């Protein structure tokens, strides 16, 4: 089922019963098996069907390094890059964002970007080494989203810009297609600054 967040289909009882009890994407249905949450889906698909060795290697140590980032990601990259939720008017209440809270979140984004550069990209081209893995895809997708608010978390950060451009280039045209909505909204935000 294609999901359209603009129409808020994911908040319906039907969606909750048929597609995802958490009323979010992503989710998969593999015959009668229903699963949500991106990391759980990744690990299930890897075990059940195999992923390309380059994305999620079978080697215990290589996979552990990716898992280490994926676990860190939830309470760091994902949590702190939710600035997009604070930078727009809340569509459910019509309230404008609290500017003090917005500045606090921007600082946490900068701290998270510092940590990605210092902890994950310090000695490597990619998050978990010198080849791209799903860890890079998870990080890149999260880092792209704040641009929809007019805030670019990697602006002026050579190491992060180089890494993200490498991810984009290696995965295009699929990457650009997957980020079509993000890029469209980011372009509108950029024009509004002029």
From TrEMBL:
PROSITE patterns: GST_CTER (PS50405), GST_NTER (PS50404). Coiled coil: none annotated. The keyword Transferase applies. One of its GO terms (molecular function) is transferase activity. It comes from the Eukaryota. Residues 59-194 form the GST C-terminal domain. GO terms for cellular component: cytoplasm. The keyword Cytoplasm applies. Gene3D superfamilies: 1.20.1050.10, Glutaredoxin (3.40.30.10). SUPFAM superfamilies: GST C-terminal domain-like, Thioredoxin-like. Residues 1-53 form the GST N-terminal domain. It is found in: Cytoplasm. Keywords: Cytoplasm, Transferase. Belongs to the GST superfamily. This is Uncharacterized protein.
């Amino acid at each position: 089922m294609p999901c359209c967040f603009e129409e808020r289909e994911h908040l319906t009882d039907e969606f909750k019963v048929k597609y995802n009890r958490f009323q979010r994407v992503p989710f998969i249905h593999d015959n009668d098996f229903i699963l949500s949450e991106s990391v759980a889906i990744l690990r299930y698909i890897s075990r059940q069907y195999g992923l390309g060795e380059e994305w999620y290697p079978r080697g215990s140590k290589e996979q552990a390094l990716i898992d280490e980032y994926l676990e860190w990601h939830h309470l760091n990259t994902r949590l702190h890059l939710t600035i997009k939720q604070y930078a727009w008017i809340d569509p459910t209440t019509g309230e404008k964002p609290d500017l003090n809270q917005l500045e606090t979140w921007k600082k946490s984004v900068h701290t998270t970007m510092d940590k990605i550069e210092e902890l994950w990209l310090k000695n490597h081209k990619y998050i978990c080494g010198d080849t791209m893995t799903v860890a890079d895809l998870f990080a890149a997708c999260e880092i792209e989203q704040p641009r929809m608010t007019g805030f670019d978390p990697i602006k002026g950060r050579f190491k992060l810009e180089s890494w993200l451009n490498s991810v984009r280039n290696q995965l295009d045209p699929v990457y650009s297609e997957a980020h079509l909505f993000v890029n469209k909204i980011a372009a509108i935000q950029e024009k509004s600054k002029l």
